[in-house]
Amino acid sequence: MIVLGLTGSIGMGKSTVAAMFADAGVPVFDADAVVRELQGPGGRLLPAIEAMFPGTTGESGLDREKLGKAVFGDRQALQRLEGLVHPAVGEAREAFFAANRDAPLVVLDIPLLFETGGDSRVDKVAVVSAPADQQRERVLRRPGMTEERFESILALQMPDAEKRVWADFVIDTGGPLSETRDRVNALIACLRREAGG
Question: In angstroms, rounded to a whole number, what is the distance separating the alpha carbons of residues 181 and 196?
Fold first, then answer.
């Protein structure tokens, strides 16, 4: 099995690329989706998050805006939150590997792959990237996004240029979707050959 780490900064198109891998039959572990489940209605991390950051959860799960205000710009608060979230995501990842142990290729979709040292737990890394002006335009179209929030998120992420240097593969999403899909399918074929599958 080849474990491909898929990462990319906010607004680069990583979710779209992850869906292309899934559409091609490659098992994809979506770390963000796991986090949303853990923090959603009835999520098992809600009591611990509420105890750590009072007033940030409710019946509908985590209030992302309130939690964002509690942790953004406060590295220690963010580290405490990550201390809750990362072990729970790790358990889900191990269950994913067990369920897909016969697959020749699996993808771990992890936004902060380099920032959390996750690149040491994968065989190859693919970075999803687009020109900075496209990234900014995509992100600022999101509901509730502001320039200030965008800049604070970028400050927590390794710069795109640096990610590209450390990547085994760079998937450019700056052009038409059909070109991106062709790149993804070519990468899948290459990695499946390497894995013997």
Answer: 22
- pTM: predicted TM-score of the whole model, two decimal places: 0.82
| Cα–Cα distance measured from residue 78 to residue 152, given in angstroms and rounded to the nearest whole number | 13
pLDDT 10s digits, 76-90: 988 899 899 889 988
Domains, the chain, in order of start with CATH, read 2-27+100-195 (3.40.50.300), 40-95 (no CATH)
Q: How far apart are CA 6 and CA 74, in angstroms?
A: 27
Q: For 104-132, how does the pLDDT look when each residue is reduced to its tens digit (9 = 90+)?
A: 999 999 888 898 888 999 999 999 999 99
The DSSP secondary structure of the chain, one letter per residue, reads: -EEEEEE--TTSSHHHHHHHHHHTT--EEEHHHHHHHHHSTT-TTHHHHHHHSTTSEETTEE-HHHHHHHHTT-HHHHHHHHHHHHHHHHHHHHHHHHHTTT-SEEEEE-TTTTTTTGGGGSSEEEEEE--HHHHHHHHHTSTT--HHHHHHHHHHS--HHHHHHH-SEEEE-SS-HHHHHHHHHHHHHHHHHHHT-
